[in-house]
Every structure is written in structure tokens, then in C-alpha cells.
Amino acid sequence: MMNFTRWFPFYNGKPWSGFSLFAKMNSLIIVLFIPIIILYTYSNDVTYKVVSKELLKSNTKQLTFLSSQIDSRIQQMMDFSLTFSSDPNVRKFNGFNLWEDRYDRMQTRYIIQEKMLLQSGVTDIWPTRYAVHSEQNKDVISNYSKSGGYDENVLKRNMSGKWTYGDGGTDSHDELKAFYWFYTDSLAQPGMWTGSNLVIEASFSYENIQNMLDSYKAGGQGDPFFYHKGDTPILNRSADKQISTEFVRYLDEHPPENTTQNVVKLGGESYLVSSVKSTNLDWHLVDVVPLDQILEPISFSRNLFYLSMFLLFVVGISASILLYRNVQRPIKKLIHGLRRVQRGDYSVRLHTKDRNEFSFVFYRFNDMSHQIQDLIENVFNEKIRAREATLKQLQAQINPHFLYNCLGYIINMAQMKDEEAVVSMAYNLSAYYRYTTRMERETATLDEEIRLLINYLDIQKLRNGRIEYHIDISEEMKTQYVPRLMLQPIVENSVIHGVGKSYTSGEIRISGEIADGFCRIYIDDDGQGLNPEQEDALNRKMQEPLQEEMGCGLWNTNQRIIHQFGNHSSLHFKKSPLGGLRTEVVWEIPAGQDPYNYPSQQGDNQHANDHSR
Fold this sequence. Notes:
It contains 15 helices and 17 strands. The protein is of the alpha+beta class. It has a five-stranded antiparallel sheet with strand order 2-1-5-4-3. β16 (570-575) and β17 (581-588) form a beta hairpin. The longest helix is centred in the N-terminal third of the chain and has 68 residues, at 18-85. The two termini are 62 Å apart.
């Protein structure tokens, strides 16, 4: 009897009701939709509030940071002015004596200008201007083109100790100006003009503010500007002048405090207006953010979700109706046929007048009734053939690997004029292929594999005189049948990567044992070995698909052992008692077989090397 519940989960041996399925589907749709809509509505509302709150906090922090940057740059200018007023060259310029020659005066002016130019060129985004006014010499030195020369009236009306917008002249309020600060080291009240003979002037253009506003706007959503009641606001270069004018008018009517944040309705849209007062300039840094534009994606996502849920609900109900009308009867007919097949009646045939997917299912069902047994037998035979093909393919990948190494050795020995080694290698290579070309058997006795190892190690010993090997395999264990060339790639790996990479090592030890239904062979070397991380990585690679950076010898050997003896058999790598690497070959003795009693080998019993060591 066949288990059709595994093939058709809806079938459980009980009468099937299409109407019941229809009702259950509609109920399930409603039960699923209601909690989803409620949870999404709540989540959307929380998200909207959180985003709005974080937007307010983020905008205030960013605006405060920009204001602090502006004040920091202004403070740097003030600090430089204080330090510069005590500069020896500045003092010397203010105290030129009649007996000093013209060259000294020119050199002093040049040094002062160089220092001011150096200070003004520190940053491109904030260029500064400096000037030194000497009352005694009625002269001025500046790092920019200053018109009018020394003007005592300008100094008197600007010695307030604060930053002023413009130099106190008759410029129009509609024009953008520069910010000025005049410093004197008079002993009188700071910032007061008392006829002192030295004044340091520091100034910067409104374009500096625009540079900062442009940088701020490039990283945000707002439209910032610099505002002071009664003066023309300083806008960023890409500002919307119409909207900015409307908000300047709003700020004139509602003067901002040190830190202000309001939501303003303008033209049917909501704007977040934030302002921070500059400590040094007494101006306000204002940012206008279109609140609806930022929060619009959340509202759009919410509306789109509701529309999608409505459409999904309509589609779900329609699908359940179509399922009820077009699937119920064909499935009932199919279940009836499956019951007959389950009872062993393979003569059952299903017919339908409709030309749809069920007609194809019925057609395939009719074929299934008389092909089930054939398919089972075909699959079983195919697995056997695939297993044999895999074993042969994996074995074929190893043979060229050993051949290339042997040919390389012959070439090297021939170049070194070592005829004995060449003859020995050629002889053993011939014996090796007499052994490997007998393709009627994929397996060999462990004794034959040991003889092949003796042959290989003798050849390696010719190449490297410090190689010594010891083989300790019991006679009983040598009767075990294993895949051909199972041990040779492992021993080769120990020779090349273990012994060959060290000038002091040279011992290879091969031992084996039978215990608890398993055969174990240990290949040890006294080479450099691997650290724990490398050992773990190598063991993992044995369980993974073959990769391009991996050598195929060990991986193929591991796969052949698994295919031959099952998943409980494998290669494993660990630290060797000799100090190098230990390769442990473990395979499970097939059930029902005596590990010490195998049938004798039939046919030619030709070994890889007929001469003993």
C-alpha cells in the first residue's frame, strides 16, 4: 500500500467537503486581515509621532551645531585680533621712529600683511579680512583692497566692542554687507575709542554666512537663512525667495527668542520654523522645513497599505469562490481514484471534458497507475549506476595527480644526471599502471595499497635521503578491501607538505587498528603541522563541495571512502604525536562481514612493485 497522504497533504482518508474548505478559507482571510490592519494602524500612528518628534529634535540639534560653528569661527577671529595686537611687528609699525630707514618700514609692512594673509586663508569656506590702524602714523595695513585709507571717524563710530553689520556708513538697508569688529588695547573701558594709537579691525563678508548655509542645506531638507529684524536677511544661494520673504514677514511680527521652534501654516502647507540666536552677532539662524513633504512618505505608505489590503481582500474572496466552483469536483474525483490505487487497483482511469490543468493531472494519473512499479525499479537501478559512475569518476581524478608528480620527478632527476633514480621511477611507474589499469575492480586489498606505498616512499627516499618511514599494519587488517589509491594521496601530502617543507623532519609513520566495528589507519609525519585554526578549516573543507583553491587529492579520497563505506567513514586531521600532522582514515566495516575473513582475490594478483623493501 502506498502512502498518498505524503503526496497529497489535503487527503487524510476521510470524506472531503469543498464547501467546508470554502468557508474555512473565507474565515481565515478575515481572521488574518483584521489583526494586520489593527497592528499596522497602531504601528503607523506610533511611527508618525516618533518621526515627528525626532525631526524636531534633529532639526534643533543641527541648527544649534551650525550656529556654534559660525560662533566658533567668529571667536577665532576675535582671538587672533587680540593676539595680533601684541605682535612685535604690529607694535613696531605703530611706533615707527624718524631715524628708521625706509627698507625697515617696508619689511615690517610686508611681514604684517603676510601674517594676515596667512590667517585669512586657513579655510576656503570662511575667508577673513584684517586691518591694522595706526593713529600715530595715520596709516593702515590690510590684507584686502581697502578704500579711503586711514579714517578716524570710522574708528570712532564702530568702537562699540560688538560685531556690527556694516561699518556704520550710509549704506542702504536693502544691500548685503559685511560684519565688522574693531579692537583696541586701550587701558580705558574695552571697546571705547579714546584716541588710542592702535586698532585691529576684523571683518568677514555675508558670503561666509551663505557658504555655511549652502553646506547646511546640502545635507538636510530645510531652507535656512540668517535673520535680523530691520536688516536684509542673508539667504542661501538656492533659496526660494518668495517663501523666505513670507517667513521674514512672519518673524518680524513674531520676534524669535534665543531658541524657538514653531509649526507655521503657509499656503495650505505646514512648515517647521526653527531658530537659534548667534551669541556674537545677535542674529538668528532660521531653518524652514516643509513638514508635510518630509512626512508625506509615511502618509502615502499608510494609504497604499490600506488600498493594497482592500484589493487583497477582494482577490482572496474571489479566489476562494473560484476554488470552490472549479476545484472541488476535480479533487473529489481525484481522491476517489487515489483510494482505488491505494487499495492496489491500478486499472482505475479518470476522465474529464474540461480542457484545463486538471485534464493534464488526470492524464498523468492514468499513466501513474501502470508506471509506478517501473518507476521505482528505474530509480533504484539509476541510483546504483550513479553510485558506480561517481566512484569511477572520483578515482579517475586521482590517477593523473600521481602521474604528474612522477613525470615531474623523472624530469628533475634526468636534469640532475641521476640515472639510478630515473630507472627506479620509470620501473615503479610502469608497475603502478599495471596495478591501476585493472578496471574490473574498483577496490583492492590493503596489502596491495601498502605495497604501493612502499614503492612510493622508496622513490621519495631516493629524492630526499633524510626520509624514513615505518609501517605497522597487522596481517589480518591487510585483508581488508578498500578503494584503490586510497592511501597514496595522503602519504604524498605528508611527504610534500609535511616533511618536504622542513629541513629537520623526515619521519613518516603508518599504523592501523580494528576496533568497535571500524578500521582506522593513522598516517603521521614530524613536519611543521598545522595550527588549531588551520586543522579546523581543513576538516570543514572535507565536508564541503570541492572549491577551486582546494587540492582535489584529499577531498576525492574522502568522497571515495564515504561512497564506499557510508557516511560514518571519513578523513580526519589532528596534531601528530611526532609533532606534525596526523591523518586518520576511518571506515565502517560493512554489516554481516567478518573483518578478518575476506574472500581471496581472483585473477591476476599483480602488485605495484614486485620486489620487497
